[in-house]
Amino acid sequence: MGAVTAFGWGLEPLRQALGGGRTGVGPFARFDHERQRTHVAAQVPAGPPATFARPRGWSRLAFCDQFALFAAREAVQAAGLSFPLTGSTAGVFFGTSTSGLLESERFLTGVWGGQGARLSLIAANPLNAPGDAVARDLGVTGPVRTVSSACASAALALEDALRSLRGGEVDLAVAGGTDSLCRITYSGFNALRAVDENPCRPFRLGRTGMSLGEGGAILVLEPLPRALARGAEPLAELLGAGASCDAHHMTAPHPQGAGAALALRRGLADAHVLPEDIGFVNAHGTGTPLNDVSEAAALHEVFGPRTARLPVSATKSIVGHLLGSSGAIEAVATVLGLRSGEAHPAAGSDPLDPALGIDLVCGTPRPLPKTTLAVSASFGFGGANATLVLAPWLSA
Which of 166, 237, 287, 300 is deepest in the core (most CB within 10 A)? Predict the structure, then answer.
């Protein structure tokens, strides 16, 4: 796995932050937000470490492309692979919501301001740009696909990778997502009054909205026999995935969480496990009043009375809402939890909302049984829902 978050470039800073339950949401300077209602977000610190060998053209890449490329290299190297990825039929499966929109905004600002702007900035705009950048850097000649379904994008990209691996189209998948902060999403969510003035507080009393963030995350997937044959040690198993649509509203989730519950059930069925087999949920957990109610209803619908004692983590309280990339970073956080045997705590100290009946992990990490199976959930605007079912790798 590889990651870029507000805590730094690399997986280790994220691991430490998750274990301590500390938030990366705070003041930021990616662009001017003086006229906005709120003034916090989770911004990635400038530049990767000096040890990172920047490829040719690095400075011309959009921020989100840089996040993707760094995380992909980290993941591939951690998997014991070298690039270019020769000797395999590899594919790239990516999720994003805004891609290089920040760079497009800068281009238009320059044009409107009469200051001129580099046309190369507009080349960062296409949604497929991050996946293509990763494919070029890693030498991937198999399929390169981009999913853009709001906040479920990266989780759906992981599902796409799983299907491609199962069907034999590829024998190695570089899958994940990336997004950067930009004015239009920050302004839009502020206009909707969906952003908290403070770091977001999923499933807590007094929550008033989400906290936006940026970054990228990559997971390298391959069939288990192939991984073992080359001497790799898996981190976890992706058992299954499910998806659905609320078909309800452009921005509001289904009030009873019907679509989310359907995606959960489909994910469990695809993984051939039962609701009672799940011992940990990494929730979508945005901290908006409506989303948390809808998600809680879906969890109760699927897991029944067990929901009140089912450990739930809320990664967005720590890294912010990475939009199209959120499903990937939360899958990474879920795998880290399964590896360590602990569900990470949510950031913050506000009291829980008793009306939701959610057992949010707070304060310190929650120990998990060695054989715990987990669900990572992603529910986006337009009612796009995706779930991933993960298991710890238990070597023979």
Answer: 287
* CA–CA separation, 54 and 335 (whole Å): 28
Q: Phi, psi (5° rounding) for residue 32? A: -70, 125
Domain coordinates in residue numbering, the chain = 2-229, 236-392
Q: Which of 33, 284, 300, 344 is catalytic?
A: 284
The predicted model scores a pTM of 0.96
pLDDT, tens digit, for every residue of 320-356?
999 999 999 999 999 999 999 999 999 999 999 999 9
Is position 249 annotated as part of the catalytic site?
no
From 33, 254, 300, 321, active-site residue: 321
Higher pLDDT, 113 or 229: 229
CATH of domain 2-229: 3.40.47.10
Report pLDDT for 180: 97
Closest CA to 357 of 314, 271, 295: 295
Amino acid at 234: P
- Give dist(CA 150, CA 243) in Å, integer: 13
Catalytic residue among 151, 182, 200, 362: 151
* Relative orientation angle of helices 153-167 and 326-340, to the nearest 10 degrees: 70
Q: Is 321 a catalytic residue?
A: yes
**Any catalytic annotation for residue 151?**
yes
Domain range 236-392, its CATH number among 3.40.47.10, 3.40.190.170, 2.60.200.40, 1.10.1040.10: 3.40.47.10
